[in-house]
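Page 42, continued from yesterday. The earlier attempt failed because a stray header line got pasted into the input along with the sequence. Redoing it now with the clean sequence only.
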Amino acid sequence: MKAYALKVPKKQGEAAIRLASTLCLLDKRLKILQKNGFLFIPLVQKPCSKMLYKLSLDVFEVVFEEFVAQTKYAKKGVDAFAVCLPQHLQESFPRSIDFVGEIAIVEVHPELIDYKHVVGKAILESYKKVRTVLAKSGAVDGVYRLRSYEVIGGVSSMETVHRENGCKFFLDLSKVYFSPRLSYEHLRVASQVKERETVIDMFAGVGPFSVLAAKLCKKVKIYAVDVNPEAVKYLEKNVFANRVSGKVTPILGDVRKIVGEKMRGIADRVIMNLPERSLEYVDVACESLKPEGAVVHYYEFAKGSNATATVKKHLVEAVSKSGRCVQHISFTRIVREVAPFKWQIVIDAIIK
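This time it went through. C-alpha cells are written below.
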C-alpha cells in the first residue's frame, strides 16, 4: 500500500514516531519500514507547512513509499470505547499520550471531566504495559518544577522505571520533573560530549543528560547538580543502576553557590536545561567555563514567529554582560511547542 512517509535516520526514529503520533499524523494501520539506515514512518496524510514546522527534527524528508499493512490493528482509545462516550464528546478524547515507564499521562479536556475514568480505563485496556494513568491537573511550577496529576486509572503509585536511549531511570513523577518528549534532545547533547571532557549539568534532575553522556564516553567527568533532594536521590540511584559511578558526581544544592565555591573555570561543556529560568544563570555558566572557552547548551522558552532570534539575542547579551563573548552559534533547534505559539528553543554556543 502506497502512503506518504516521514523518512528519518534510524537514530531519530523514536523522536520522529512520537512527533508524528502527537500531531495525529502516524498511520497505525501500516508497519514502519526500515532500510538503508533510515526509518520510513507511514503518515495518514501529507503534512501541511504548519505541521512540517512542528516536526522539530534535524534531518527528515517527506516521501511516497510502499508499506505493508499491520496484521493486527487493535483499536485504541476513543475507537474502542466510543460507546462509552456521548457522540459529541468523542472528538475530545485525548489523542496525545506520554509514556513514562509504566505510566501514561494525558490531558483531559474540561468537557470530559465527568468521563475521566472512562478515559483511564480505555488507555489501560489499550496499552497492556500501562499500570497507571495520570491526568495533568496543573502546570509545571515551583523551584522543583513539579506538576500536579490526578490518577484516573490503575494503581495510585507515581514511581516507575523509565527506559530511554539504552539507560534506565528510576523516578517518581510526584517528586521530580521528567519529560519523555526530550528523549531525542538527551541523545543529541550526550552524543556531543567528548572523551576527557569536564561537563556541568546545571539542572540535572534524575540524570537523563548526565547518565547517558557517561554511558557513551569511557573517560569523562560530569558534575550533575540539582536543588531538589528527591531528584538527587533518584539521580544517585540511576548513576549506580547504569554503571556510571566515578564518571557522574551527583551534587545537591543551588548551582550558583556550588559553582562559586567549587567549580570556577573547570568546564568544557555546560548543559542549561531550565528553560523558564536559564537566562538568570548565564553568568554562573560563564563563571564555570574554562578560561579558553567551552560549549554551552542553552534552553529557553520564547513566543512568536521570531522565537529563535529572540533567544539568540538574550544569550548573546547575557554572555556579554558576564565578560565573555559568544564566538559561534553552532546549532539552534525548536525542541517542542509548549503552548500555542510558545516554544522551547535550544542553542548550542561556543563561548570564549
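Notes: The two ends are 54 Å apart (CA to CA).
Reminder to self: strip header lines before submitting.
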